[in-house]
Amino acid sequence: GGQRQRIALARALLRNAPILLLDEPTAHLDPDAEEDFLRKLKDLATDRTLLVASHSDTLIAASDEVIWLQPQLMPEDSGC
């Protein structure tokens, strides 16, 4: 699963950019494909900064640093 996603990820990784922003990069991959992607990502991430938005426990566990974002509750009368 996730053939289009894998192609898009490969293109992004091959650009050799110093910073990669990835939004849910393993969202449509099956568990085996996700593990394979993570192994390759670690190799390709050398000397790069990766910022990844993800709900994947596997991807989060493989990260060097995790920043958790929580929704901010807005008062009802704030006009937002």
Structure description:
Keywords: ATP-binding, Nucleotide-binding. Residues 5-61 form the ATPase AAA-type core domain. InterPro entries: ATPase_AAA_core, P-loop_NTPase, Type_1_exporter. Pfam families: AAA_21 (PF13304). This is ABC transporter ATP-binding protein. With 80 residues, the protein is of the alpha+beta class. The chain has one domain (3-78): Rossmann fold. 39% of the residues lie in helices and 12% in strands. The chain has three helices and two strands; from the N terminus they run H-E-H-E-H. It has helices at residues 3-14, 31-44, 57-61; strands spanning 19-23, 49-53. Strands 1-2 form a two-stranded parallel ribbon. Strand 1, helix 2 (31-44) and strand 2 form a beta-alpha-beta unit. The chain is globular and about 50 Å long. It starts with a helix and ends in a 19-residue tail after the last helix. The relative contact order is 0.18.
Keywords:
two-stranded parallel ribbon; 80 residues; 2 strands; single chain; 12% strand; 3 helices; alpha+beta; Rossmann fold
List the helices and strands and how they pair.
Elements lengths: L2 H12 L4 E5 L7 H14 L4 E5 L3 H5 L19
Parallel strand pairs: 1-2
GO molecular function: ABC-type oligopeptide transporter activity; ATP binding; ATP hydrolysis activity
InterPro entries: ATPase_AAA_core, P-loop_NTPase, Type_1_exporter
Protein name: ABC transporter ATP-binding protein
